[in-house]
Design a protein that fits this description.
The complex is a heterodimer of chains A (301) and B (420).
Chain A: H1 2-36, H2 55-62, H3 64-95, H4 102-110, H5 117-138, H6 142-146, H7 153-181, H8 185-193, H9 198-209, H10 211-226, H11 230-235, E1 241-244, E2 247-250, H12 255-264, H13 269-297
Antiparallel strand pairs in A: 1-2
Chain B: H1 2-20, E1 30-35, H2 41-55, E2 58-63, H3 70-79, E3 86-90, H4 91-98, E4 102-103, E5 118-120, E6 123-128, E7 132-134, E8 136-139, H5 140-146, H6 156-168, H7 170-173, E9 177-180, H8 189-201, H9 210-216, H10 222-237, H11 241-246, H12 249-257, E10 261-264, H13 271-276, E11 283-286, E12 299-302, E13 305-310, H14 316-328, H15 330-339, H16 356-366, E14 371-372, H17 384-397, H18 403-415
Parallel strand pairs in B: 1-2, 1-3, 9-10, 12-14
Antiparallel strand pairs in B: 3-13, 4-13, 5-6, 6-13, 7-12, 8-10, 8-11
The chains are: A mainly alpha (301), B alpha/beta (420).
Chain lengths: 301, 420
């Protein structure tokens, strides 16, 4: 035993700070959070904290706003996930082709990612509220001139997808771009000698070769699409209102926003925790499922 | 995941602090005041420093405004055992949140100088920071040019005639719209709290709770709600779509100040923003026309924010003295009125505010004109105005629902109150 410790002490010492940090800021709060989700904790001193069983979970599932949040988060998440990957993969193909000025494009597409989500939301809010209608009226397009994207519950979701794609596509593009650099030139050359056209090459050589990049990109975008928060806060603030099941709901109040509002606006800390726990379980399941599917598709090298 | 982790960290910190925070703070001669009004910060700090020097006390004024979340910060302080000696609550909802740590202030000298003290079950708990008021703010110069008599602005038809006249003279008067108003998310308090309060209070004495009690019991006064709905429809028909659906309250003040709108759906707190936008014209408030053809004669006037005492404070007598001297000394009286520009809640305060909207309401009060309850809306369940009915106004403004649907949504919402 002593010998074993002596031999491995260095390993444990090196890993200790990371493990400590992980336990302090992830593991303990996570467990505490689960415990709090079964209580009626309100977040301030008054009143005692009592265990109320599954009441928080039941109440959440009966809350019209929460149900709407779940549905809209899934819709937004999937659309956003598809859209980002489509755009970023196309961009990556573009900047890795022989296009003139491709280095400039590559930098340009990446820059939005460096702008913070809140700032970006305000910039696009200004564009949607002021610039687009102004451009519309100047070019005589009455649809653009009279449409306020952020005032319509369906168009606001579109606006949100557009903005978050604009923010995130450049980053994912870099992952695809790096992978594309590693595609074997020999294979490409020999396939073109055999008479394969571009689409055939894309389908049979390029995409299979960069499958690992798909795994990581799909994972990143899936997770981030479901957790969208800061852009929503500044772009739409959760609004505009929409009708769901005959009641008014906030049309862009995705789950993360709903959880925050439950905790900090309505002071329902316990219930907010319950929602966060459900959100976590759902996200974990989706991520595991998605990773295992794409992993299977990666080619052995 | 990120959110969960963040929330977890907060939980952990809070947990840790409850355990070890209770024992500190032995310096007896210090006083901490916690408040959330940006415009109060500097004048109050200056006054507090002077007062502290005279009394040998270190007075700290902590402020939490803008992006700072006052409620969250208060919770963190309480959990850390560092609750301020004096802090601020907003009406009944705020009181209910912190009632376990608030000390009563019955019998203090200042209580005899005001009608606006915050009371629960006959006991005094809150020191009114200032008096605020609202109605439909108007630009007197524009109304004069259009030949509209302010005295006609108190019924539905009076307003309808005035709005239509202004609408027809828009280009002549250089107006973008008639009523500067907003409904976008984050600004739902404008209609949800302030306008909807008219349904609860208009035409009733300020202590008359008949409509409020019926509402709390989930009963709808149909005629009243019909008249109210007509009023909202009228207001929304005369605002530029952009401002109404996606604009913010800041734009609302600015556009009114620039003279682009004849009316503004806001209150006395808009003074500084209107002035900064160049608003130097004559202005005032007219009562809302929510009662159909019955003339309304009052504005909504009252105090919304109150200083309260932390009952566990080691310096509770000092805190009481501080508040009393804010009322009884000349320097204290000047802070709220002269330096911040608000309306004093105290009878012995002879100063009057200089900015026009506040001055108008101060005059209205000293003339003894009628005031409707300002705070009935805050007796409804927490967030009812902003999150309950607020989004319904947004739907109506976006034309996603019709007049009848709006009426029904409002009715359903009120009927659901007992279950909230």
């Amino acid at each position: 035993m002593k010998k074993y410790l002596k031999k491995n002490l260095a390993y444990y010492l090196f890993v200790f700070p990371a493990v400590l940090a992980f336990i302090l800021v992830v593991a303990i709060p996570f467990i505490l959070g689960i415990i709090y989700s079964f209580t009626n904790w309100k977040g301030y001193a008054s009143g005692s904290i009592n265990f109320i069983g599954l009441q928080n979970y039941v109440q959440s599932l009966q809350d019209n706003k929460f149900i709407y949040s779940v549905i809209i988060t899934v819709i937004f998440g999937l659309l956003n996930f598809l859209f980002i990957n489509l755009v970023s993969f196309s961009l990556a193909l573009m900047v890795s082709s022989k296009l003139k000025g491709r280095n400039l494009y590559r930098t340009g597409f990446f820059v939005p990612n460096l702008v913070g989500g809140l700032v970006l939301g305000y910039i696009w809010q200004f564009i949607f509220n002021s610039i687009i209608p102004m451009v519309g009226s100047n070019i005589g397009n009455s649809f653009l001139a009279n449409t306020y994207f952020l005032s319509n519950s369906k168009l606001a979701v579109v606006a949100l997808i557009f903005t978050s794609t604009w923010q995130y596509a450049g980053y994912i593009m870099m992952i695809y771009y790096t992978a594309l650099q590693g595609v074997s030139k020999d294979l490409i050359e020999s396939s073109s000698l055999d008479g394969a056209n571009y689409l055939q090459r894309l389908k049979n050589i390029i995409i299979p070769s960069i499958m690992p990049a798909f795994t990581i990109s799909l994972f990143l975008t899936l997770a981030s699409s479901f957790q969208q928060y800061d852009v929503i806060v500044s772009l739409t603030g959760g609004g505009p209102a929409a009708i769901f099941n005959g009641q008014s709901v906030q049309s862009t109040e995705l789950l993360a926003v709903n959880i925050y509002n439950t905790a900090s606006v309505q002071n329902q800390m316990g219930q907010s925790q319950a929602r966060a726990v459900m959100f976590f379980v759902a996200l974990a399941l989706i991520s595991v499922l998605q990773t295992s599917i794409t992993k299977r598709k990666e080619i052995e090298s | 995941m990120k959110k969960i982790v963040k929330l977890g960290v907060v939980l952990l910190l809070a947990f840790g602090m409850v355990a070890c925070g209770k024992s500190s703070s032995n310096e007896s001669k210090s006083l901490v005041i916690y408040q959330n009004k940006a415009e109060m910060t500097e004048p109050l700090q200056a006054y507090a420093k002077k007062w502290g020097d005279e009394n040998g006390v270190t007075v700290t004024v902590k402020t939490c405004t803008g992006s700072c979340d006052y409620g969250a910060q208060m919770k963190a302080d309480i959990n850390a055992g560092e609750t301020s000696d004096i802090f601020l609550v907003e009406g009944l909802q705020g009181y209910n949140q912190y009632k376990d740590i608030i000390a009563p202030m019955d019998g203090e000298a200042w209580t005899s100088e005001t009608n606006y003290a915050f009371k629960v079950d006959g006991k005094t708990y809150g020191f009114p920071v200032a008096v605020e008021g609202w109605g439909l703010a108007y630009n007197k110069d524009i109304l004069d040019k259009a030949g509209i008599d302010v005295a006609t602005l108190n019924t539905y038809s009076g307003y309808k005639a005035a709005f239509e006249k202004l609408e027809s003279m828009k280009t002549e008067l250089g107006l973008t719209g008639v009523v500067s108003n907003v409904t976008a998310s984050g600004n739902t308090w404008v209609m949800g709290n302030h306008d909807f309060n008219a349904y609860l209070s208009s035409g009733l004495a300020s202590d008359d709770r008949t409509v409020l009690d019926a509402t709390l019991a989930g009963k709808v006064d149909e005629t009243r709600l019909q008249n109210y709905t007509k009023w909202v429809e009228l207001l929304f028909a005369h605002t530029d779509t952009r401002l109404l659906t996606v604009g913010t309250s800041d734009e609302q003040f600015a556009l009114f100040g620039e003279g682009k709108y004849a009316f503004m759906h806001q209150g006395t707190w808009g003074d500084i923003n209107v002035k900064n936008a160049g608003g130097t014209f004559n202005m005032g408030f007219a009562p809302y026309g929510t009662l159909g053809e019955t003339a309304a004669d009052g504005l909504f006037i009252g105090a919304s924010s109150f200083y309260v005492l932390n009952k566990d404070s080691a310096n509770i007598d000092l805190a009481k003295k501080f508040l009393n001297e804010l009322v009884s000394t000349e320097a204290g009286q000047k802070v709220v009125v002269e330096e911040v520009g608000l309306i004093s809640a105290f009878k012995n305060n002879a100063y009057s505010p200089k900015l026009p909207l506040s001055a108008f309401v101060a005059q209205w009060v000293s003339d003894g004109k009628p005031a409707y309850s300002f705070s009935n809306i805050y007796s409804l369940p927490d967030g009812f105005g902003t999150n309950g009915v607020g989004p319904i106004f947004g739907l109506f403004a976006n034309k996603q629902i019709t007049y009848d649907q709006f009426y029904k949504q409002m009715k359903d919402k009120i009927e659901s109150i007992p279950t909230m």
